[in-house]
Amino acid sequence: MLNLSGKNALVTGIANSRSIAWGIAQQLHAAGANLGITYLPDDKGKFEKKVLELVEPLNPSLFLPCNVENEEQIQATFDAIQQKWGKLDILIHCLAFANKEDLSGDFSQTSRLGFNKALEVSTYSLIQLSGAAKPLMTEGGSILTLSYLGAVRAIPNYNVMGVAKAGLEASVRYLAAELGPQNIRVNGISAGPIRTLASSAVGGILDMIHHVEQVAPLKRTVTQLEVGSAAAFLCSDLSSGITGQILYVDAGYEIMGM
Ligand SMILES: NC(=O)c1ccc[n+]([C@@H]2O[C@H](COP(=O)([O-])OP(=O)(O)OC[C@H]3O[C@@H](n4cnc5c(N)ncnc54)[C@H](O)[C@@H]3O)[C@@H](O)[C@H]2O)c1
């Protein structure tokens, strides 16, 4: 029943084979979606080469650089979608950044610059990409972002990223309210801890994963592909009545009190 054929999906946030966005891209492809992939460009073109090699088997029909701090690259991404696809159905926002020094130690010592950087890249980018996607989602659509429990609970070391994720989850609700009349749904997945490039910057990530393995009802954490499966559901017509929600894909950890 899960069928995304005929749907154009833009996936942001693939850095390597551990990326949650890679799990999502694989599941959207398996469900028949036509993919566009963006990557974070760097001076030496390292990411471009690595990500291109990784995604080639999924035959993306668009492959573009897009640093969300760069307005021109965002504009160029959505111009390319307009020209090549004519319409967009699915937007996957799967990226975040905070300075490493802001992901451990005392939260009260977060710098103004570090706060602004984390919130701009991790939170404002959802608003910005959704605004750019809106006029292209002419047949309705689905926007999905990735959050973490640190948005609603105080998690050791998650610090400024918890504030960014709280803002992200509120943005999901405000965007869902605005875009609903256009049949554009906006949801978030709050994923359990997974070892990735981004999560390795959070102090004590391995301890977090081991704790989840002991406490979560399923006695393990989740995989990128499990998050991808839930993402495919939230981007498909099977979830046509769901918008503005945060779905926990965390092996049940969130329900536990002890
Ligand atoms: N790994 C986890 O435990 C976990 C849990 C819950 C939520 N998340 C969220 O999942 C999302 C993906 O993270 P991940 O864990 O797969 O790590 P990842 O490092 O694989 O992905 C993060 C991505 O963000 C991109 N990025 C950073 N700055 C950018 C910028 N300025 N412009 C464009 N792209 C930029 C990176 O290139 C990378 O592809 C993030 O929002 C993260 O907070 C992760």
Description:
By secondary structure, this protein is of the alpha/beta class. The chain has one domain (8-249): NAD(P)-binding Rossmann-like Domain (Rossmann fold), CATH 3.40.50.720. The chain has seven helices and seven strands. The longest helix has 22 residues, at 112-133. It is globular and about 50 Å long. It starts with 7 loop residues before the first strand and ends in a 9-residue tail after the last strand. The model has no long low-confidence stretch (mean pLDDT 98). The structure holds nicotinamide-adenine-dinucleotide. The site of nicotinamide-adenine-dinucleotide has 27 residues, from helix 1 and strand 5.
Keywords:
binds nicotinamide-adenine-dinucleotide, single chain, NAD(P)-bd_dom_sf, fatty acid metabolism, 14% strand, Rossmann fold, 7-stranded parallel sheet, alpha/beta, 258 residues
| Topology order in helix (H) and strand (E) letters | EHEHEHEHEHEHHE
Estimate percent helicity.
25-40%
How many individual domains? 1
Question: What structural category do the secondary elements indicate?
Answer: alpha/beta
Pathway: Lipid metabolism; fatty acid biosynthesis
EC number: 1.3.1.9
Protein name: Enoyl-[acyl-carrier-protein] reductase [NADH]
Binding site for NAD(+): 13, 19-20, 95, 165, 194-198
Topology:
Elements: E1 8-11, H1 20-30, E2 34-39, H2 46-55, E3 62-65, H3 71-84, E4 90-93, H4 112-133, E5 141-147, H5 159-179, E6 184-191, H6 205-215, H7 224-235, E7 246-249
Parallel strand pairs: 1-2, 1-4, 2-3, 4-5, 5-6, 6-7
Helix pairs in contact: 1-7, 4-5
Nicotinamide-adenine-dinucleotide binds next to helix 1 and strand 5.
